[in-house]
Amino acid sequence: MSDASAQPAHAPADHPNVASGKTGVLLANLGTPDHYSYWPMRRYLSEFLSDRRVIDYSPWKWQPLLQLIILSKRPFTSGAAYRSIWNEEQGESPLMTITRAQTEKLGRALHDRYGDQVMVDFCMRYGNPSTQSKVRAMAQAGCRRILFFPLYPHYAGATSATANDQFFRALMQETWQPTARVVDPYFEQPHYIEALAQSVERAYAQAEKRPEILVVSYHGMPKRYLMQGDPYHCQCQKTTRLLRERLGWDETEITTTFQSVFGPEEWLRPYTVQEVARLAREEGRKRIAVIAPAFSADCIETLEEINEEIRESFESAGGEAFTYIPCLNDDDAHIAALTEVVTDNLKGWLD
Hints:
This protein is of the alpha/beta class. Among the domains are: 34-85, no CATH class; 190-325, Rossmann fold. It has eleven helices and ten strands. It has helices at 38-49, 59-85, 94-114, 131-140, 157-172, 190-206, 223-227, 232-247, 272-281, 300-316, 332-345; strands spanning 5-6, 18-19, 22-32, 118-127, 143-150, 179-182, 213-219, 254-259, 287-291, 321-325. The strands form three sheets. A four-stranded parallel sheet has the order 4-3-5-6, with helices on both faces. A four-stranded parallel sheet has the order 8-7-9-10, sandwiched between helices. The protein has a two-stranded antiparallel ribbon with strand order 1-2. Helix 9 runs parallel beside helix 10.
């Protein structure tokens, strides 16, 4: 196949050239502000917190509160958190740096398999690069088929679904829409579980003393979403079980928690920040490790929330050794898992 722009066969002389011949693989992650200063943070937070998949309160009640109160203060506190983890050398957040590295490695793996038939790129649900800009670029490059891959192992309305929403909105803007597929969640994919297990084994081998328990911390969501049918909670629990079984551990050596609680209503429990303190204070656990399998790349919720806030909660309650196990990021085992997921989803298109 070729991606060269040319006139279709038997077309009249004045027919415009048409690029064709590629299959696009478009990775999608949550997003990142362009900078940690006030206005870039405000733009990013406004887009994120205006998403009805994220905050489903009535807009006529929520938007005045968001625009007049929350966004007058939140950009300062969030900006300070981003500044503490910012990749100053490249002028971007770690999520951007890591997602780009993942895309490059996955692109090389798929090129080895499919040659020039595949075009691999990434977009962000919020901020830049936008989903629409990348869908447009793929269509203009001749991608008549696009595999859309939200980089969330577990399905949730506030992550996978809103990424898909934005992808289909982008397709609505195309005169000639590419054929599209969306990747299913991969929370139980064997290569993904293996990559998680290997990361735990490496961290435990490097620890001065073995952690007494592994806290598997997932991003939280309001409990009512579970009651409304969102499968996220069940998928998270299954990932923990599969990880425990792969490691060959007893149930007392691993526990599931949820972080990033926002707003007044009850979220999925137990809350990570409270549970690590309880483990130290009530159970006398002095050494713990924390891993965050729901995040495909380290970001503000892991580098700042887990490795700073949650660590502080544990140590303030009497904990002594806190081990944060990084996300899988662009680890070779993770790229192998992602490659397997993509390859499986390209069947029938490219074999």
